[in-house]
Amino acid sequence: MKKIFTLTLLLLSITTFARPPKNQYVRIRTTYGDCIIRLYNETPLHRDNFIKLAKKGFYNGTLFHRVIQNFMIQGGDPDSKNAIPELQLGDGDVGYTVPAEFRDSLFHKRGVLAAARDDNPKKASSGCQFYITEGKRFTDGKLDTLENTRLKGRKIPAWQRDWYKSVGGVPHLDQNYTVYGEVVSGIDMVDRIAAVKKDECDRPLADVAMTVEVLSKKECQQLDKIFNPPAPPKGE
Fold first, then answer.
1. How far is CA 199 from the centre of its chain?
2. 105, 111, 115, 120 alpha-carbon torsion, rounded to 10°
3. Using CA atoms, how far apart are residues 116 and 40, in angstroms rounded to an integer?
4. What is the pLDDT of residues 35-52, one digit of tens each?
5. Predicted pLDDT of residue 231
6. Radius of gyration of the chain (CA)
7. SS3 sequence, 88-130?
8. Are the C-beta atoms of residues 173 and 180 closer than 8 Å to each other?
9. Which of 129, 151, 134 is nearest to 142 (CA)?
């Protein structure tokens, strides 16, 4: 009986770790700290592209080359590797774009990962450049004004308003830039980088380099338990 019980536990353990994690996570390391980001399954094109580049080591050594406090920090320009001081950055790319993946449920709350882009009419994303929002809190009055001006009459859903009022974010970017992940740990890294001294082009005076690591299957399974717990049974 004891052997059967032990074998059953072993099989359950093997089955658990054989299952793929629900989400993929990545870690961004900087001298200002680290953060862990959960990539959204609702935006598979952006998720898979980011993972592909990160696994190749593409982002390692690139800079957060544009930082604006209470707004966002931007990085991923391949031209930023070993860039000379004061060089204006932001035009580097990988030769392709990623089709926009706008989702009503995904919006620019504080700490989201989103894709940078140029002014192309289809709003396709840069193949490599991204930003992480720091944002700020809004009042209902400021959100009303935003709807009538920069959003051109588009209404912000009530539940998103609650986020923008309590947690903060950058609502005027919604449905214009693809959101494809969010910081689940280490948002203070974003705050520290956003506050650094910078030049007139918003490039930090002291380089802020990054490394990006795709976390292992086991690590992602563990993080799913912490940051993406299963929904409670009906009735609870």
1. 25
2. 70
3. 16
4. 999 999 999 999 999 999
5. 55
6. 20
7. CCCCCCCCCEECCCCCCCCCCECCEEEECCCCCCCCCEECCCE
8. no
9. 151
Stretch 190-213: mean pLDDT, rounded?
97
d(CA 47, CA 41): 7
The Cβ of residue 69 has, within 10 Å, a number of other Cβ atoms equal to 15
Are 3 and 9 within 8 A, CB to CB? Answer: no
Percent of the chain residues topping a pLDDT of 70: 89
Contact 43, 61 (CB under 8 A): no
- Retrieve residue 10's tokens: 């072993």
pLDDT band at 18 (very low <50, low <70, confident <90, very high): low
For residue 191 the two structure tokens come to 């705050």
Q: How far apart are CA 207 and CA 152, in angstroms?
A: 37
Q: Which helix (H) or strand (E) holds 38?
A: strand 33-39
- Domain 18-220 indexed as CATH 3.40.50.1110: no
Place of tokens 């536990």: 9
**Which tokens in the block code for residue 25?**
């996570």
CB 99 within 8 A of CB 43: no
- Joined tokens for residue 202: 């918003």
Cα dihedral: 195, 31, 24, 53 (round 10): 100
Q: Return the closest-CA partner of residue 214 out of 52, 6, 87.
A: 52
CA 230 distance to own-chain centroid: 22
Helix (H) or strand (E) holding 73: strand 72-75
Residue 55 has a pLDDT of: 98
